[in-house]
Design goal:
The complex is a heterodimer of chains A (about 325) and B (about 280). With about 325 residues, chain A is an alpha/beta fold. Chain A is built from 11 helices and 12 strands. In chain A, about 40% of the residues are buried. The C terminus of chain B is likely disordered. Chain B starts with a helix and ends in a 10-residue tail after the last helix. The longest helix of chain B is centred in the N-terminal third of the chain and has 37 residues. The chains are: A alpha/beta (about 325), B mainly alpha (about 280).
Chain lengths: ~325, ~280
């Protein structure tokens, strides 16, 4: 199956500081490669500040990439002007983290969901299409006549999903969409997303800080740390045997009923370093329990260890091999 | 409805009624002079009912003149405010949405504009333009459009960071459609409040210009010119100056109450979540 979305060496940097203060570069996304196949789900996980949200927005060109390519279905969209990009927006949509902020409080739900149809001059009766979309996401068609503030967080997230679906996109970026929802609401929204994926043949780029949520929905998982992917693997493989020390810590911090009482999650030392000041060598080495001399000097490449399984860690293979590398370096 | 809003609405309605119905409410022509009946006192001070609020130094009926002046006040308030909003709002929207260089240039223009004392600028403009109702409106608009530009820009700077703006960009709306369809509806409460406060200012500036003789034509009664005319006879007929002043003060206070009351009601930052 050909890739729907291919991202190559994508970088999104911000320049900080004015003409009087010292100029610094914030490297929010710093060299990301990823591939998303049609109708699949790729999860991007990482803690806050890892650049996962910036990555999602840069892929949709809501933020400007500094470097690299974004290829949507064979077409490089990373340098297209915004007007030329507009027709392509039909194919990629986004659902945001805050359902309270992502819907215009002054518009009725019907107007909000119909807006993409209107902007892209989709033929047909928009009222009927909106009613169908609302019903498809589990809301009554009468919701169209109400304002967003009349709905709960979960319902608003459904409205945002209906809006994203309106143009029948191939790709939807789901940016932390469950983080503001209760556990039960979260599960229902995830179930809805699974249904919609099959019905509308959707590919999801599922951005989350919560590994446990990711597991139920995604085919593959990419773990981000300080603007880079440190590990990427099929979901089950990643959960069974995480190779990168950072992934191992993330996975171990998921609470599980089995080890109730004796659960003693590993704690990473300190906060993630600032993306303004990325440590040399492996960017994880200051917090890595296994760090060696080589980790302080050389930045590990994202290497393919097994088919479909990539890790950026010097120690991912057996440590003796690494010891020899260390000596020769 | 809070008490400020109630007071503002009542005063505003009374003013509009007076302005609309002036030809029918007034017993006589506001400009008809009667030199046999100059400086007659109001009825409660021993005057006669044919001049309920007395007459001025040319024997003109004060009640008629006060009511006709309300027309000038209402027309200036609405006209100047609408035009100032129509000019200032787009400037504020463009400046706040695009930020960067556009914002810097537009806001420096506004800064320079605002650094000129408003009253001085209005008087200078009228001296150049000449007197007249439309010219008064034009002068007020030229002085005051920056107020709208400034406040709207500030609000847009905050609004543009909300996710629904990003959502509409993801749908494919261009910048001007985002301003018109997404941002403008969210600015309506602020615009209403700004407009009512602006009306108070406009009425005050009009009175000031007419007071110094640079406002509406001499044949049109206006509170400002009435105050100026009555000033010379303050000791022999205090009502000639005091009554138009009272009308002016009540009107300005009324518009301010309206603006404050609306702000308390419409501004979400002053409203608790539960009271919504």
């Amino acid at each position: 199956m050909p890739a729907l979305l291919e991202v190559q060496n994508l970088k999104t940097h911000y320049r900080l500081g004015g003409w009087l203060s010292r100029r610094r570069i914030l490297r929010a996304v710093d060299g990301v490669d990823l591939t998303l196949k049609s109708q699949q789900t790729l999860a991007v996980v990482g803690e806050s500040g890892s650049g996962k949200t910036t990555l999602g927005r840069t892929i949709l060109r809501l933020l400007e990439p500094t470097e690299g390519r974004i290829v949507l279905d064979g077409q490089d969209i990373s340098r297209l002007s915004q007007p030329r990009l507009r027709p392509l927006r039909r194919r990629m949509q986004i659902v945001f983290q805050h359902p309270y902020a992502s819907l215009n409080p002054r518009k009725r739900v019907g107007q909000i969901v119909a807006q993409p149809l209107r902007i892209h001059q989709v033929p047909g009766d928009h009222r009927r299409q909106v009613a169908e979309l609302l019903e498809r996401v589990g809301l009554p068609a009468s919701a169209a006549d109400h304002y967003p503030h009349e709905f709960s967080g979960g319902q608003r997230q459904r409205i945002a999903i209906a809006r994203a679906l309106a143009l029948r996109p191939d790709l939807i970026v789901l940016d932390e969409i469950t983080s503001g929802l209760d556990a039960t609401v979260k599960l229902r929204v995830l179930a809805l997303l699974r249904e919609l994926q099959a019905d509308f043949r959707l590919a999801y780029l599922f951005i989350s800080h919560d590994l446990s949520v990711v597991r139920s929905l995604s085919d593959r998982v990419a773990v981000m740390y300080l603007g880079r992917i440190v590990e990427e693997a099929p979901t089950e493989m990643l959960f069974e045997r995480p190779l990168h020390p950072y992934t191992q810590v993330l996975k171990a911090s998921i609470p599980e009923p089995a080890n109730r009482g004796s659960w003693n999650p590993p704690v990473l030392v300190g906060d993630a370093p600032s993306p303004v000041n990325i440590p040399p060598g492996c960017r994880f080495h200051p917090r890595c329990p296994l760090a060696q001399a080589v980790c302080r000097e050389a930045e590990p490449e994202l290497r393919e260890l097994a088919p479909g399984r990539r890790v950026a860690c010097h120690l991912a293979e057996a440590p003796p091999v690494l010891a020899r590398d260390d000596v020769s370096a | 409805m809070n008490s400020k809003l109630l007071g503002g609405v009542v005063i505003g309605l009374l003013l509009c009624l007076a302005a609309l119905l002036a030809p029918w409410l007034t017993p006589r022509d506001p400009n008809r002079q009667d030199l046999s009946a100059i400086r007659r006192p109001p009825v409660w001070m021993g005057g006669a009912w044919d001049h309920p609020l007395g007459t001025d130094s040319l024997g003109r009926d004060l009640l008629s003149r006060l009511l006709w002046s309300a027309r000038v006040a209402v027309v200036v308030a609405i006209g100047a405010t609408l035009c100032a909003a129509v000019i200032g709002t787009p400037v504020g929207l463009v400046s706040g949405y695009f930020r960067g260089r556009v914002d810097t240039i537009l806001m420096r223009v506004v800064d320079v504009w605002m650094s000129i004392p408003a009253v001085l600028l209005a008087i200078a403009l009228m001296a150049v333009l000449g007197v007249g109702l439309l010219k008064v409106i034009l002068a007020i608009v030229l002085v005051d459009w920056t107020r709208f530009a400034r406040v709207i820009r500030g609000e847009v700077l905050a609004l543009r960071e909300r996710e629904f703006v990003e959502a509409s960009r993801a749908i494919g709306l261009g910048p001007f459609r985002i301003m018109a369809e997404e941002l403008l509806p969210n600015l309506v409460p602020l615009l209403i409040v700004l407009a009512s406060l602006e009306m108070a200012i406009a009425v005050g500036v009009e009175a000031l210009l007419s007071f110094v003789g640079l406002g509406v034509e001499a044949a049109v009664p206006s509170w400002g010119s009435m105050i100026a005319e009555g000033r010379g006879y303050l000791l022999v007929g205090w009502w000639g100056m005091t009554l138009p002043m009272l009308a002016l003060v009540v009107t300005v206070v009324g518009f301010n109450l309206l603006g404050e009351g609306l702000r308390e009601r419409l501004d979400p930052r002053l409203r608790t979540e539960a009271a919504r």
